[in-house]
Amino acid sequence: xxxxxxxxxxxxxxxxxxxxxxxxxxxxxxxxxxxxxxxxxxxxxxxxxxxxxxxxxxxxxxxxxxxxxxxxxxxxxxxxxxxxxxxxxxxxxxxxxxxxxxxxxxxxxxxxxxxxxxxxxxxxxxxxxxxxxxxxxxxxxxxxxxxxxxxxxxxxxxxxxxxxxxxxxxxxxxxxxxxxx
Length: 181
Hints:
By secondary structure, this protein is α+β, with helices and mostly antiparallel strands. It has helices spanning 17-20, 40-50, 54-58, 149-153, 155-178; strands spanning 28-38, 62-65, 75-80, 87-97, 106-114, 120-130, 135-146.
């Protein structure tokens, strides 16, 4: 067995809450919904891209993962920034829901939780859904608390960075839905 790309254990309460329950009471929670396209083909393209790390890569993050496909237990280190200003964010996939053959409505996606070294202690989930009318939407759910005093002190900057990367995730999903390469 090869060594893990990130050490430590999940470091927050409420593991799996982005799929099955409310976030911990002490965590900030943000849920973002965005329209990304129409039809089953668009839904399947977004789901495939999401479950092969393309959502993050197209959003401009560097991604090092233990598996090319998102599966529970996979560790991934996403990074953003440049040179000494690069922030690495190690996580572990805690749940996955794959698209199913058949009709609508349905949803697919995954959630991952933070590991030591991440700027936040919490969880983030990415879900794509298609409703009965064929409308495809992206839902991003994130909850957490700063991992240390430095990230806590940068509150306004941290919120701005989170908003920026969320908008890039949405654009990435829209590109996947439209099959833009």
